[in-house]
Amino acid sequence: MWRFFILLFPLFISCGKLQGEFGFKNSLDEGYRTKMERLEFSVDDEINWVYKFKSSPSGKVNLGIVILKRELSWVDVLAYPDYIDETKDVIYGTIKDFEPGNYKIVITQRKEEEVKVIDEIEFYLYSDDEEEESN
User: Fold this and answer.
1) Are the C-beta atoms of 22 and 54 separated by less than 8 Å?
2) Residue 51 backbone phi and psi in degrees, to 5
3) What SS3 class is residue 26?
4) CB of 47 within 8 A of CB of 25?
C-alpha cells in the first residue's frame, strides 16, 4: 500500500503547479516555434509570442506578465495583467518597437499578497546597425 502512495506522491505535487511552454513567431512564420536554441530577433520585426499551459486550471488564475530589459539590473519595460481559466489556457503577447538589448518575459501568478514566478524566458533584440558595425 505504501508503494502506491510513494508512486503517486510526485503526481500530486506536480498537479498544483502551473507549467507550460513559450512559442514565438514573426511575420514570415506560419506557426509558433517552440524549441529554438537561440532567441534572437530583429528590432524591425514584430514578434508574436504565446505561452501555452499544459493543463487548464479548475478556476480563474490571475497572472502578471512582465517584460524586463537588462541594463545594470533588470528594468521593467512593460507589465500587464492577464488570466487563465477552464476555457482559456493560452496567453499571447507582442514584442515591437523595443530598443536593441537583452530582454526577459516573466509570467507570474498573483494570489492576494503573494506573487509566484511560473516561467520566464530570455531573448535578444538586435538592430541591422549592430550587424554592420561588427563586419
Assistant:
1) no
2) -125, 115
3) coil
4) yes
CA 91 to chain centre: 9
Whether 5 shows a pLDDT value over 80: the answer reads no
The CA distance from 42 to 68, in Å, is: 17
Q: What domains can you pick out in the chain, each with its CATH number?
A: 20-134 (2.60.40.10)
DSSP 12: H
Would you state the cell numbers that stand for residue 58, as one nine-digit string? Answer: 479548475
Look up the pTM and report it.
0.80
CA–CA dist 46, 98 (Å, integer): 10
104 is written with which cell numbers? 526577459
Residue 75, pLDDT > 60, answer yes
